Amino acid sequence: MSEKKTVSIVGGSGYAGGEFLRLALGHPLLEVKQVTSRRMVGDPVSLVHPNLRGRTNLKFVDPAGLEPCDILVLSMPHGVAAREFEKYAGLAPIILDLSADFRLKDLGLYKKYYGEDHPRPDLLNRWVYGNPELYREALKTANHIACCGCNATATLLGLYPLVKEGLLVDGPIFATVMISTSAAGAEPSLASHHPERAGSIRAYKPTGHRHTAEIRENLPGHPQVHLTAVATDRVRGILMTAQTFLRADLTEKDVWSAYRKVYGAEPFIRMVKLKKGIHRYPDPGVVEGTNYCDVGFELEEDTGRLVVISAIDNLVKGTAGHAIQSLNVRMGWPETTGLEFAGLHP
Amino acid sequence: MSEKKTVSIVGGSGYAGGEFLRLALGHPLLEVKQVTSRRMVGDPVSLVHPNLRGRTNLKFVDPAGLEPCDILVLSMPHGVAAREFEKYAGLAPIILDLSADFRLKDLGLYKKYYGEDHPRPDLLNRWVYGNPELYREALKTANHIACCGCNATATLLGLYPLVKEGLLVDGPIFATVMISTSAAGAEPSLASHHPERAGSIRAYKPTGHRHTAEIRENLPGHPQVHLTAVATDRVRGILMTAQTFLRADLTEKDVWSAYRKVYGAEPFIRMVKLKKGIHRYPDPGVVEGTNYCDVGFELEEDTGRLVVISAIDNLVKGTAGHAIQSLNVRMGWPETTGLEFAGLHP
Amino acid sequence: MSEKKTVSIVGGSGYAGGEFLRLALGHPLLEVKQVTSRRMVGDPVSLVHPNLRGRTNLKFVDPAGLEPCDILVLSMPHGVAAREFEKYAGLAPIILDLSADFRLKDLGLYKKYYGEDHPRPDLLNRWVYGNPELYREALKTANHIACCGCNATATLLGLYPLVKEGLLVDGPIFATVMISTSAAGAEPSLASHHPERAGSIRAYKPTGHRHTAEIRENLPGHPQVHLTAVATDRVRGILMTAQTFLRADLTEKDVWSAYRKVYGAEPFIRMVKLKKGIHRYPDPGVVEGTNYCDVGFELEEDTGRLVVISAIDNLVKGTAGHAIQSLNVRMGWPETTGLEFAGLHP
Amino acid sequence: MSEKKTVSIVGGSGYAGGEFLRLALGHPLLEVKQVTSRRMVGDPVSLVHPNLRGRTNLKFVDPAGLEPCDILVLSMPHGVAAREFEKYAGLAPIILDLSADFRLKDLGLYKKYYGEDHPRPDLLNRWVYGNPELYREALKTANHIACCGCNATATLLGLYPLVKEGLLVDGPIFATVMISTSAAGAEPSLASHHPERAGSIRAYKPTGHRHTAEIRENLPGHPQVHLTAVATDRVRGILMTAQTFLRADLTEKDVWSAYRKVYGAEPFIRMVKLKKGIHRYPDPGVVEGTNYCDVGFELEEDTGRLVVISAIDNLVKGTAGHAIQSLNVRMGWPETTGLEFAGLHP
Lengths: 346, 346, 346, 346
Fold this sequence. Notes:
Chains A, B, C, D: GO terms for molecular function: N-acetyl-gamma-aminoadipyl-phosphate reductase activity; N-acetyl-gamma-glutamyl-phosphate reductase activity; NAD binding; NADP+ binding. The structure is a homotetramer. In chain A, strands 3-2-1-4-5-7-6 form a 7-stranded parallel sheet. A 7-stranded mixed sheet of chain A has the order 9-10-8-11-14-13-12. In chain A, strand 6, helix 5 and strand 7 form a beta-alpha-beta unit. Chain A contains 11 helices and 14 strands. By secondary structure, chain A is α/β, with parallel strands linked by helices. The radius of gyration of chain A is 20 Å and the shape is globular. Chains in contact: A-B, A-C, A-D, B-C, B-D, C-D. Chains B and D meet through strand 8, strand 9, strand 10, strand 11 and strand 13 of B and strand 8, strand 9, strand 10, strand 11 and strand 13 of D.
């Protein structure tokens, strides 16, 4: 049995940090050392993460009091990790960043989608994109892991085998992500005020979603993927549907083959395409709390239109679970360690 | 046909003021003159009340720019109407206040439940409690109407006939109100942050709810009603259940008789107690958007326990609709004018 | 003032028939004469439509007992209206059918999407598609009105001006409809069993949705519109997003011009595209209970991708409200009669 | 390390059986041998329990094909386990029944609440009520465990220490349980049809709830507990509030002492009564998926009214988790084995 490694979390009062904390507390090879929050110094972490009552006596500490540890997880607002990187770089040999700061290599894409020049282009090359399905080999030796965006994960994992194996007609791919309210974070706002948001189906980002950049950069050949984001009133979860066309010489069997070839050994990807029952396609309700990405598709025979469907929990496979999985790869631990929860039904 | 009366709303960007505005715009005998909001001066009212798009071109004005009108509606945070009464008193011959400031006559109850002495006890006697079912006669000549609280309305209308007709055993009455998220108002807060509130069933005020005071003051004989408030994730609506004991010499028929005697001619109270179907008791989903208070009950034969059930929409019958109904009574208009919406199903 | 016309509803225990009944009861120029239900003969209509308690004393009658009336509304399962048309044809000079039986003229499209030959092609020519925005002139003299499908309405009203005015690049249009649970009707099923459906985002019809046929037939030039239907857990409402490309020589102003030109005088279409606030685009929550179709769009400048967004209440503008509007056109009544409800917020 | 024990589930297609299956699959000392379903013989269990995709290849078998095993779990409709007990009695030395058939000792209470004489009173004495907090000692040697009802569990665990320690004034205790839709089972019905149930707050059993019998029988001294059940639209979870009076000579400290004394060493009971934050009292959202029962209270100083609040997941602590916990006690395994999930937030 490996020895436990210590992990500390910078920015642990939000949803991403809290989810990493939950998973780390249940991980047999991790020991949570410190969790920071500027606003809540001295409060038990369970005050804002009530599911952790009775699970830990940890209290929030000030970031200034961070001590060296084996693994440091950064969960801060956009831009902070890049601007303050020197503060944290020396604290741990392995650093995971949950923000978007170090995900992109293409500075032009960064500027286009984030509206400014990247503050620290010199740092980008040392980071590996935290997506084990695409970058498992690189992750095995990565000391800096830029964990991927939730909508990007759902879209990439749905499309990757089809693009990689060259199954799609050239041309635009239209992806629609139906997302949930936890994605906007733990800070109250009018957009997330319950009476305004409950029951809402809100086209909150029809164009220009930042995760588009991650998707394009990480798909082979950089196809023109368009992203439309619609906010639902689920608390957790993403359903992604992508519309494109299959090459005219191919059939449904070829689609199956591509997925099997690329994902055959993946521990967290399940192909879901049933002929009966009510759960025939991926559904975020089914994967809530789990690290699964369920993937399915439907082919319209007469037109060749291919609809790809994927579902994840944005806070697990979309954020903290994917981070744990990347970390397991990095540490040489079994990849599913600490990610065993099967999800609930109903 | 009567001539239209002008009405202005002080504090029209919140949910109570917005709901009064919606009803007033659809009322054939009211003409909305001005709507105030300090923060949104110059913005169209439809910016925060998107249901009113295409229904009105009104823009928010500063309270300082209020002009005289026939009817003034005050919809301000607790305490403001009492403290600033002189600002508004001269603007209109008829004033309705949607806050709790002028509801109580008993200064002791006010202090107990609001934690301070009433700022303007001298004003209290001129106000009539805006509950037509209990105070219709007084409302006919009332120039100052203190509109009643939403939980108080649900509880009072459920219990009033039983108390008035002396059907209950002396002793405590335990009322539980299951309320909705709009009751906390339009201002974002952590408690109403969607990810925290969605799916929540939260015992937010097990004891000490302020509406207890209104309920006790307005029930004949002032029985000891205890109120426990539980927050659900409905956006609108209240379900009230009250538990008490029927006098041992009485039967279900006597309960029916009391309700019929007191409510037989009420336009907005429906007795709901069916023997079949799935809608056998009052349900806030059924009365959403309407001015109805549905009332039902169940009697446990062997113990005499009586469970009273009522349901309202907190923003309509619980606030703005009740206010319009009171105003209709005051003006001598048909009591249902502007309150005809039947509600939706499903 | 016109004289009231009598209307009877065949199949009034379901959601579509019930919604027509609700609107007809509130319509000043309609008098509901009979409502049929085979299973519920003798039961009050309010048993299954609890919002109508206190609004009507109507009881369900057997279809065999139908008497002549001015207007007959058919609300029956797919295929019944066509197969049993002779039963009803003589009962009223004006007939509205809420089913899909008489919507299509193209027998090939019917066979493709409904899987069988049309049972009564001889009847098709007498029916006018019940969409006032597209067929107002024809509806003025129509005695047989085939009311349009809910998803078709949302999609058609979003795309029609752009297609009619020739603003779009040739090529496929990808429409995604996010629909609600009432669309599946009043009959319990596993797919609509609350524990299975609540919180679900279900890709229930990625390809092959029947409303595709209506959409293609009624758009000028019959563009290749692809429809993907995703089921949410809203009870009412549709959000439609369509992705396509604007012609390279055009700008956002041209899009605005097309919508204004075609919809400038429409009483139930609101353009929604704001620069601030949280309600910047159409949202089904805002139009619930109303006959509005809110339409908005967003243009991605660098690629010309145009995302069109529309929102309706599937039971009102998508079914019964659209039917009432068509009937108002037919009768020469003001088009908004009986459809004045503004909707609720929050 | 103990050797694994085999467990089979009779009636595994429903929610209770499915939840036991999920927990058993994740239990390191259990090996699931067979799962029966009459209707689904040969179908993979993941067809109806989609969360188990990739977790098990088990297929449903016919009950007639059941083989001997170490532990048999009966999850059948009311009355079947009692009537068919001989079929199953010989298959395993340890039997757990998830139904209500063997919970009560008092035949009078059974008849009163279930409306008929108990079919097999001769069997009752061999069963131990599966509530480890109340009957841990007896469970250590129990070969027949009658798992307790979900509403009974929430109510019993909230009230037990107060009654046991004699803190309450004699007199009625009014308990209100706010329950969820999974409690009605996996079979579609009109009451659980999504459009009818969503958003509903339904007083579905104001009096006469069957779990009242279990509560009274298992509280020391059999106080007069009244139960009112209200159905919410949560899928899982129960919030219980009970209203009663604390003895006049006691204070809040005594309430704390009683809970600490009785529950101090309980692994699955958490006292929740905070002075700040939004999670001050138990909330079913926080315990979803877990075996926790969170318990809190509030005391109204001037009247002595005590409001007790508890929250559980009806399918875990209310059914299958409580069963696993009882089984762990019986087998001498650590009591939390297989029940480690912390729950999600948000």
